[in-house]
Amino acid sequence: MDKFDTLTGVAAPLEIMNVDTDMIIPKQYLKTIKRTGLGKGLFAEMRFREDGSENPDFVLNQSAYRHAQILVARDNFGCGSSREHAPWALLDFGIRCVISTSFADIFYNNCFKNGILPIKVSEDDLEKLMDDARRGANATLTIDLPAQEIRGPDGGVVKFDIDPFRKHCLINGLDDIGLTMEKAASIGAYETRHAQSAPWL
Amino acid sequence: MAGPRTLYDKIWDDHVVDVQPDGTCLLYIDRHLVHEVTSPQAFEGLRATGRKVRAPQKTLAVVDHNVPTSDRSHGIDDPESRAQVEALAENAREFGVEYYDEHDRRQGVVHIIGPEQGFTLPGATIVCGDSHTSTHGAFGALAHGIGTSEVEHVLATQTLIQAKAKNMLVQVDGTLGEGVTAKDIILAIIGEIGTAGGTGHVIEYAGEAIRDLSMEGRMTVCNMSIEGGARAGLVAPDEKTFAYLKGRPKAPQGADWERAVEAWKGLRSDPGAHFDKVVRLDAAKLPPIVTWGTSPEDVATIGGTVPRAEDAANEQQREKIARALAYMGLKGGEKITDIPLDVVFIGSCTNGRIEDLRAAARIAEGRKVADHVRAMVVPGSGLVKAQAEAEGLDAIFRAAGFEWREPGCSMCLAMNPDKLTPGQRCASTSNRNFEGRQGFKGRTHLVSPAMAAAAAIAGRFVDVRSFS
Ligand code: SF4
Question: CA nearest A34 in B: which residue?
Fold first, then answer.
């Protein structure tokens, strides 16, 4: 997993509430057995028209935002299915950070497993950041994970909270499974106890 | 200090393997269900790192999302679907996991077969790379969806790194009226709390109306917990739960069964246990519900109308409603009963169980599907299909003009050939009405099985209570 430390990049405004995982990556792209290459399906049903041509109204098709690395979106981003294809598609497209007032739990979790930083901010801060993101060519934000702050184009700063363990894993690009495997003895001991108390499990 | 605990607290406490200094826990997982869409990358990860499946006997794999619901004897046409199905078969073989393939009569939607086999048990922790894993909470199991990286984590370690959620109680008092079902309860709850209302919480459903539901009905309610933002839903197990499970192939037998039931009886929230959020609903007042928009919270009563964007409370809501109306091909202000339909889909892990098919068949019996409507019934599993056929339900559906199909996810998410075409409008017993969910530009209205069957016959929505 790629480490996440500080990121400076273009932020695209996605002014939709309840962006669901079916929007982020429609099911026709879920038939892959790989993690890579999903960027082509990102927001496909909004990004492309029925004939396959680009929809010029969609934000990521506008020249200022084609290489956006940050998304600023409205409430409840990532609701719906557990498909990790959603963060894979964002990552493959180049998005490393999503900012919203709230996220659906599973999506939020999945981001961290893939080196994407989801940031929760207050409604007021979201309005400020949405304004920043609307500035097209000047919509550049700096995400400083160690300092837990977002710096805007006019020097405005928004602070954010993050769970310390998740922050640590993201900054160091740590693989959860490796960490858990080190606890194999505790897992084994639990299994022995559990086999006594609930042998049917 | 052990004060009064909720059911969630109890199952959680029972499964903690390790606590980190920041409070994050390593949680033991008793049951892992696997399907073909969210698992290939996880098995690939195991292979790349030389890891094994820690507890293959606690893992069960089934193919459901990609399988065609027509005759399967000649294989799967779509090469990508076929590759995904074959990958699961190969992974299950290589890693020693029990697997139901598309020809096995136990095959079906992953959340239908878990309970059916007795793999789902009270007090267990259950995960699957699928958000509707919440279904299994109907048995008093802590069950939730996970992403593929977590699937790999569970395969390798039989544990999950988790922070504890908050407790939410949804209390549904009173008795449901005739023709009103578990589906209407859960749609009403989501309408009430919104699709983010349960975020960060585990919901326990309680109250007379929940106790009165069959296990099938409780599964329908828990299934859609995720649509209310909660990762998991729970119902405390009771005699109905035990009766449902007794004798199932993977349920405990003999002396183990007696011991298990004794233990399961303690699986309830203690009096005075603390809930961070409480929502109450009166079942007696509920009419049948239909969704009008592109989020499960967009609910209307069957006697109601589609909302107008201009009546919205604020600008953001106005935009949201306008976008949903445009997508759904509605203007706002229409009566729900004036909305005509093209397709009716009865099935999915929300409403593809035997009781659902019985309810739909009762409405369909002796009637005909409207000429302009394509109506299909997709049983949730091979065993549900066999049971329905034994009861003659297939004959009732066929005589009425419904298609009777092979089990799988089918048009719930349209990864297989069952899809809406652009602009088609569908009454569906599934759980999501998102844009494009049932096919590109398809329009979905969520309803109960009885309401779906009535809509198929009338060719538009109709109040099943007055349907004659
Ligand atoms: S029936 Fe639908 S919701 Fe259920 S597992 Fe299949 S695709 Fe998901």
Answer: B41
